[in-house]
Amino acid sequence: MNLIASFDDVSVTRGRNKVLDGVTLALPAGRIIGLLGPSGAGKSTIMRALVGVQANVTGTVTVLGVPSGSESLSKLVAYSTQSSSVFDDLSVLQNLEFARVMLDAPKSRVSQVLDEVGLKGLEKRLVASLSGGQRNRVSLAMAMVASPQLLVLDEPTVGLDPVLRSEIWAIFRKLADSGKTLLISSHVMDEAERCDRLIFVRDGKVIANDTLQAILEQTGTESAERAFLALARRSAVL
Hints:
Blueprint lengths: L2 E12 L2 E12 L3 E5 L6 H9 L5 E7 L2 E2 L9 E4 L11 H12 L4 H9 L15 H13 L5 E5 L7 H16 L3 E6 L10 E6 L2 E6 L1 H8 L4 H14 L1
Parallel strand pairs: 3-8, 3-9, 6-7, 7-8
Antiparallel strand pairs: 1-2, 1-4, 4-5, 9-10
C-alpha cells in the first residue's frame, strides 16, 4: 500500500489532559479518508499534528517521507480549518490571488481551481455576500491553489444542507480520482459512506482504521454510527 503519511506512537498533552494517546496510523495515498468521532475526540489535534502546527507532540509524524511541518511540504500539504479560511472583505478572485501569491503558485491555477470548485462567474463577488456553501468552496479553492498532494480538511461540510454537502463531496471524489489524498474530519456518521477508508477516534485514541465494509463486518453492524457505538463500548471496557 502506497502511503502518504504515518503516525508512530503519537501523543499530545494539554495541561493534565492527554488529548492524543499513543496514536499509530498509516494513511494510504489517493484516497478519501474520513476522520470521524464526537466533538473533543481528538480529530482536530490529529490534523494539526499531521500538518506540523500542533504543540507538545511526542512520537513521529511523517508526511511524504519527511517529518510533518517540514518546509519541503509547504506546497504539498494544504490545511483548511473548520472556520472558513477566507477574507470576507475581499472578492473571490482576490482571496485566490492572495493564496496564490503566498504559495508562489502559477497564475493559471486561479482560473483552474475556480472551475474545479464551481465558482466561475462569481470571481468579483465579495465573500461576505456568498452563501455558506459558496464560502466553503472558496476556502477549498484556496487550499487547492498550489496543487497539493494532501488536503487536510476540518469539518468542511458543517452547517451545509444535504444538496450542498453532496456537491462538495462530488468535488472531493474528483480530487481523489485524480490522485490526491484527502483527510476529512466529520462528526456526521453518514458521511462515512462517502469515504474510501475510515478512522474512528474516541477520547484521543484510534478505535478503528479500515474500510467501512471491514468495520461493519468486524462489529456485526449495519451502519457507521452503530459500528462506532459498538467500538466505543468495547474500548471503554478495555
